[in-house]
Design goal:
six-stranded mixed β-sheet, globular, alpha/beta, 6 strands
Length: about 140
C-alpha cells in the first residue's frame, strides 16, 4: 500500500517536461508496485506488468508518454542501442527504469534515483535528486 501511495505522490508532484527516474532495489523490493501506483495515479486502469521480457512497456496517460523499463535480463548495456533509446528518452516522456545499473554507461543521469529496500514487514524508499529538475521535484514531493 505504501509503495502504491508513494507512486501516486510522485505522479502528483512531477514537474512539467520529460523526466527520468531510476528505481533500484533487490527482487521483491517494490519497484513494480511503486510504478503501478504511479500509473494508476495518471489514469491507467489496466494491468501493470513488469516488462522483464519485453524490456519496455509504453503507456499514453494524461496526454504524455510513459515508458516503464525493466533491464533485469539485459546481458550487456550495449543491447540498449537496439531499442532506440533516443526515441524513448526524448525529453518529453516520463521514463521509469528498473535495474538501471544493468544499463550503466549507456543510460543518462536520471532526475531522481529511488532506492527501495525491504525493512522488516515493510519497505523503505530513499529518494535522491540528481538534476535541477529532480531537486525541484523532490521539494514538490515534500509538499504533497
Amino acid at each position: 500500500q505504501a509503495m502504491m501511495a508513494l507512486g501516486a505522490r510522485l505522479a502528483a508532484s512531477r514537474p512539467e517536461g520529460g523526466r527520468v527516474v531510476h528505481l533500484t532495489g533487490d527482487l521483491g523490493a517494490g519497484k513494480t508496485t511503486l510504478t503501478r501506483g504511479w500509473l494508476r495515479a495518471l489514469g491507467h486502469s489496466g494491468a501493470v506488468k513488469s516488462p522483464t521480457y519485453t524490456l519496455v512497456e509504453s503507456y499514453r496517460l494524461a496526454g504524455r508518454d510513459v515508458h516503464h523499463f525493466d533491464l533485469y535480463r539485459l546481458a550487456d548495456p550495449e543491447e540498449l542501442d537496439y531499442l532506440g533509446l533516443d526515441d524513448y528518452f526524448d525529453g518529453q516522456a516520463l521514463c521509469l527504469v528498473e535495474w538501471p545499473e544493468r544499463g550503466e554507461g549507456v543510460l543518462k543521469t536520471p532526475d531522481l534515483a529511488i532506492r527501495l529496500t525491504v525493512a522488516g514487514e515493510g519497505r523503505e524508499a530513499r529518494i535522491e535528486a540528481l538534476s535541477e529538475a529532480g531537486r525541484v521535484w523532490l521539494e514538490a514531493l515534500e509538499r504533497v
